[in-house]
Structures are given as structure tokens and as C-alpha cells.
Protein 1
Amino acid sequence: MREIRQIVRLWHQDTATVFVTLVRTEGSSYRRPGARLLLGQQGEYAGTISGGCLEAEVVRKAGWLVQGGAVVERYSTMFDDTAEIPFGLGCGGVVDLLLEPADTPECRAVLKALEGALAGDEATVLTWLPREGRGLKRAILAANGDFAYASAGLTESELVEARAAALSRGEFESVCSEIFVERIATPQRLFILGAGDDAKPVVSMAALLGWSVSVMDGRAQMARAERFPEAEQVIVTSAISREVLVIRPDDAVVLMSHSYEQDKELLAAVLPLHPKYLGLLGARRRSSLLVSEAAAILGWTVSECCDRIFAPVGLDLGGDGPEAIALAVIAEVQACCMGKVGASRRLSPEDIERHLAEGDVGRYLQAQCALDLA
């Protein structure tokens, strides 16, 4: 997603010349279909379509390759220099790249779709790849299934058939009957509930991935935009305004205010919203008490709460300090949102029952968080 931001930024400089999209791979490939590169007039570019091995060759030849219009070029990354399409870089695969002039309506349409995705508007792009006797054609499907754009010359039957195929497919970034179908997703949204110093590296790492980051805290002296310049928004929350209610099922949320009362209130507010990821920072005993109190507030079982909470937050990567913790948190959020989470350190109902039965949970909690003081 960070690459998309860079591509859109270069596009707005009105210097773009060629747009490159990885549309097909065979064997091993550093990037997946859907990877992009936008080339500028002076050889500058945004995005990547390999691990760095193809970019120089593509940038050098892209201009004259598209003189007659969009083309699909095949590159081999095998070691074998005697291959039919030798480009022996050792990655062990073959990639097909779609190169198209940046000044065409079709290219402007997909770049506009990328820009729209950054603003929260998902789209599906259908590209009829160029072949002998027919140039590139493209259609853009909005999230509601309506066509936001269609190339001149596409028939009604072609559009209807392509839309049905695109909406029925469970996979995207794929080629089907010479139509490249891809979903332009919106940035991952991350809500950090807590504006302490340890939230800063979390914001920085999430921004590096191109995520949309919001920082929220009830303490106005901490929730200030100048403390989190890489966040898209920094909001002072309150029990009345409840800005956290904008959280959606695809969002990720991390509670890290270090204020027990704030965390309890926010945990009870966020749990019913069912975000994709909900992490709770803090010691296991503290988290056990928080989960049990949130369950009581909501009238849920402890087991229902545990199923929806990652606590302790973050993958067990080792290390110490805010940056190491931030890395563990971001890694777990990324894994969860991409459906790749394996073993985690999540609390179980048995853990909570054991901690509460020990009867000394309270001594691990501050009576009042120092940061809550004006």
C-alpha cells in the first residue's frame, strides 16, 4: 500500500510515461501479480515489480516498447542464459509484465482507481490484455458492482460476462481468458487507543507499510498531532463522543493506553464491533482482570471475549523496548489481517480463571495511572 501512495504521488507530478503491472508468474517470483511500477520522464520511478533485478531493464526499454501501444513482455529469471527469453537473474521463474503508456484513458482510469482506494473506495479492475489484432481494454467495477469506467469498444455482452466472472471468483490478481482481474483494496486501518511514547514506533512501522493509522486517547495533553506526524488522524476521545464506533470489521485495534480505567472502558466498547484484530497491551494478570470485567459489562462469557482478543499483544519475537514491542505488534496485526496467524500467546479462559483465583491481581495494578493526571 505504501507503493500505491508513491505511485499516485508521482502520477500527480504529471511526468509519468509508462505504467508497468506484473500480470502473470510461473515458478518462483519475488512479487505477486498486481505489483506495479510507474515510470517518470527522467527515469525516476515509483513501485517495484521484482526484488530489484528487473527494474533497470524495464526502465531502460519501457519507452520504446510502448511506442505502438500497450504490450505484454515476458522475462525469465532462470540461470539458463540459453533460454528462449534469457534474463538469468537466479530467481527461478518467469514473469509477464504489462507495459502501457501513461497518457491513455485506460491507464488514467486504473491510476484513478488506485487513488480512490487510498480514500477508502475499493474497486475491481478488469484488463483485457493486448494481443495481436486487439489493443488493451479495461473496465473498472466499483464496490457496488457498477461500472465506473469502460474502454470504448467493449460490448455490453463482454462487460456483463466479465463482471459475472469477476464477482464470482474467490481469487484476485489472476488471469482468466486473457482478462487480468485484480481487486484494488483499501489501506489496512489501524486504531491505536493510547497515545503514550511507546505508541510512536507502532505508528511509524504501520505508516511504513502504507496503513491508515488513527491514534486515540482521552488525555488531550498526549493526543496531539505533532507527537504522531505519520498518523492520518490523532483524536481526543471521550466517554460521550465515542469516536471508536467508526471501527469496522476489517480494522485492527490495539489498546495500549496504560490506563486501566481507559482500557476497561474501551475494551468493552470495541469488543462488540468485532474488529479483525484486537490486541491488548499489558501483563497477563492485568489483561485477565480487564477481560473478566469487560465480559461482565457486556454480559458475555470470558471465553467469548478471549476468542476476540490477542493478549498479550504481539508475536513472541523476543527483544525489549518500545521498538521491539512495536515490531511484534505490527507483525501480529499483519499476520492476522492476511490470514497467516499461527501460534500466538493469547489468553485462555483457564488462564484468566487461574489469575483471578490467585487473588493478588490487584497488586499488579496502579490505583491511578500517572498519565491520567493533568
Protein 2
Amino acid sequence: MEWTVTEQTEAAGCRFEVSAGFAGEDVLICLQGGDRPHLGCVVQTEPRKSLTGDGSVSATSSVLNFPGHKDEAICRWLSEKIAASLDRRVICTGGFHKDGITKKEIIEVQEAVQRIAEILCKKMHKKS
């Protein structure tokens, strides 16, 4: 598998990177950043029809976290956004760590993930 898209930005004063690629019909995403990039969780996401009944696509996820890691919040959001947008199964893994991170910096990281997700969706739609 080749990485199809890699996007970098800064969040909470740290480098932040997300790489994504197609593994056959599915998508693999690796999110990393902060002082010590790592693998804090694995999110497995399946696209499905939205429960709203409006015909839109949503997603359901299963998550494995390493003890004490909070990476699920950003990896799960990213995985579900990409799965619903591309209507494909997604595995997202990774982690972001910054010692002493503040609530404001956590919001910065979440906003960076949202911006990167929009860019990835657009670029991967073109390649699919």
C-alpha cells in the first residue's frame, strides 16, 4: 500500500501529521504528532446508512485503546468522517501527546484534525 495523501500542520505548538492510503477498497489512516508520536489506539470504522432515515451515510466504530491513552477522541472522529465521506471501511491508528497540554490546546488539536479531515476527504475522493 502506498500513502495516497499526507497532510501536515501545527497544533498546540507541535507538529501534527496524518497520512492516508487505500488498501484495496478500504482506507488506512495514521495520525501522529506532539512531543511523542505513538500508537495510542486503533479505530475500526464501518460506513452505514444514517439512522436519520434521510439516505445519508454515517459510520459505526469499534475502538481498542492502550491503557491511559485518550487518542480515541481524535482518531475515532477522523475515522468516522472519512468512512462516511468515502463510504468505505477505515482503520485509523495513531496518537498525539504533549506533556501538560491545556484545554485550549486540546481544542486546537481537535480543530486541526477537523481541517485535515476536510482536506483528506477532498483529495481521496479524487483518487477513488
Protein 3
Amino acid sequence: MDDGTIEAKLAALGLELPPECPPRASFVKYRLWNGLLVLSGQICEWCGEPRWLGPVTEETSVEEMQKAAQMCALNLLFCAREALGSLDRVDQVLRLGGFVNAEPGYGRGPAIIDGASNLFIDIFGERGRHARTAVCVSSLPVNAAVEVDALIAVS
């Protein structure tokens, strides 16, 4: 396990990485190539158990869904650590893609994906600021409420 400063920042926030992050289908969790780490989309699940289901509606708490997006980010960080050996090798979070399983016409998807974005900024500082796409979709794997993927530059 990594003892680096990034995991210390997570601990200071009262957060931890999941003990595992099994893939749900026939794909790899990450691909490291030429200093870029491409992380496959991760849903709001803990050790394979979905925690928030969609669709998100106007009655759904944005703050609760931000926690779902944060869980996606924790799964992404688990995969990044698995790929790199240490999260301290992250030079820059380049891009996040966020997907919210929402009812037609739902417009607060970007605010939900802020749960993932803010975690990356909180732990990586300026290196965590990134370009981003945040969209609402009609479904996600196992009816999960949120999915997030990432592209990261590494040393």
C-alpha cells in the first residue's frame, strides 16, 4: 500500500480507497501508455456492490449524488494506484468524463459530477484541475446513478 502524501490527504478528509475494484465486463480497468493513464469508467459501487441507483430525478438530493460521484472517483484512484504503484506519480489530472443516469430533462448533472471533480482538486491541488464533460444519460451499468472516467498524465 502507498504511504505517499496523496493517500495521507485522503485519510485527512476521512476517506479511503476501496479494498478492491473488480471490472464488471470484458475490459481492462486502465491502460498506461506514453505517460498517459487512461482509466475506464467506474460506477458508484463499493467492492462490486452498487450503492446508488438511478434514475436521478428532480427530487433526488444533489448532495447525495455528489457522494456517488465521489465514490466513482475513489474507485478511479484505486485503479490509478494499481497501475502506478503510487498516487504520488500523478502529474496532472487532464480530463474527467461524468455520466448521470437521469430522467429526461434533468439539468443538474454537472453539479453532481462536481463530487468527483472536487475530490481530485482537494487531494491533488492545482494538478487535480481538469477539463471535463458531464452529461445525463438514460442508463448506466446495473442501473448505477453515476459513472466517471479519467485521463491522467503521470511521471
